[in-house]
Amino acid sequence: MDAALTYVSIALSAYPLVICAMRYTINEMCYSKHESPLPYVASANGLLAYVTFRGGSLTTLALGMLLTAITYRFQVIGPVPEDEDMTGKVCIVTGSSSGIGQSTAEALVRMGAHVILACRSEKKALQARSEILARCPNGKGKAEFMPLDLASFASVRAFARAFEALGLPLHVLVNNAGVMQHERLLTADGYEMTLQANYLGHFLLTQLLLPALKRTNGGARIVNISSSMHWGERRFNFEDMQGERRYSMFGAYEQSKLAQLLSTMELDRRLSGQGVTVNAVHPGTVITNVTSGFHPLVRIGERFTTPLQYAFRKPRDAGAYTAVYCAVSPEVQSMSGKYFWHCREEMRSPLVDDRETQRKLWEVTEQIVAKSASAPR
Ligand SMILES: NC(=O)c1ccc[n+]([C@@H]2O[C@H](COP(=O)([O-])OP(=O)(O)OC[C@H]3O[C@@H](n4cnc5c(N)ncnc54)[C@H](OP(=O)(O)O)[C@@H]3O)[C@@H](O)[C@H]2O)c1
């Protein structure tokens, strides 16, 4: 028993060490300008854990987990300085009724921006709006709800028309909304839910908002909230994009996030020289409602492990740091076609840079959204 506990403790303590080693060894080779004390913190943690755990007991297991959690917390880079002045700037954040989107919207409001909460549920959005305004007592910014269901092309088009009618410029578009579904669901448009809500809906929204982004003085930014889970796919599965032959929650999610990254890179090339940048972000592993579409049994298990989740997943404000950084930081102003994590450029899967897949996916997506324009409402 003691030996087992010792091994579990060491494995837990080694977890951040492995993550740090992977991230920083590979990254340092690619981006040597980045200096970080984190590998040393993780190594010290690993060494300390090894020395401490040789005895092996419940106390050492608890201590090991504590050390691991502390090291993980060191990996949360932030908070993002909120001294950028966003007064007079208009931002749209999709899916800002909870989680990372709500925290991103809140940071932008605090900096003085006029933020459109583009959400599918009015009730949840208004609740989020009150929470945001209560946490931004400086009264500089503004938050406004506008209905948007990304799983409906008609709703995306109605949103774009309503925004256009406001006659506002658009400085920042944060494509954040996302779902994970344990069972295969179809949208009213007939597409697999994860693909449409995470990717197709945002693709159409971005296309429709490009004129507003392009006419913004001083440049505009698109920030796509992606996920490191795009690494899970070995190829983009054009033959079964809708998961008709084989569906899995993680497979559908990974594919949707890979699609989002591929189109980020294609859009970057297409926008070159037009004053609009587009970048993608991995927010980290964050405590949000993203697991609400998991299997009910998994949800029950999740409830039992809640204290552990707090140790190993970021709070939602920290999950928003990189999105906010990409949306406002002058350091990112001229950067485009990049993938960020922890407020710095991160390695992406080599698949993302395959030009042929980018082009093919763009064409397939254009055909899908074009078909929706002529569909009866
Ligand atoms: N949490 C993580 O660890 C993690 C890791 C990597 C990437 N991400 C990504 O981060 C983004 C934000 O997720 P989160 O973690 O903050 O989860 P969340 O708390 O569940 O937030 C997701 C948001 O998207 C909205 N949404 C879902 N389907 C929509 C639709 N069809 N139309 C409009 N809005 C819709 C939700 O609205 P309702 O409130 O109405 O449901 C909610 O506001 C997602 O793209 C997710 O894939 C999260």
UniProtKB/TrEMBL annotation:
Keyword Hydrolase belongs to the record: no
Gene3D superfamilies linked to this entry: NAD(P)-binding Rossmann-like Domain
Xref: CDD domains: retinol-DH_like_SDR_c_like
Residue ranges crossing the lipid bilayer per the database entry: 6-26, 47-72
Pfam families per UniProt: adh_short (PF00106)
InterPro entries: NAD(P)-bd_dom_sf, SDR_fam
Keywords assigned: Membrane, Oxidoreductase, Transmembrane, Transmembrane helix
SUPFAM superfamilies: NAD(P)-binding Rossmann-fold domains
MF (Gene Ontology): oxidoreductase activity
PANTHER family cross-referenced by the UniProt entry: PHOSPHATIDYLINOSITOL-GLYCAN BIOSYNTHESIS CLASS F PROTEIN, PHOSPHATIDYLINOSITOL-GLYCAN BIOSYNTHESIS CLASS F PROTEIN-RELATED
Name the UniProt record assigns to this protein: Uncharacterized protein
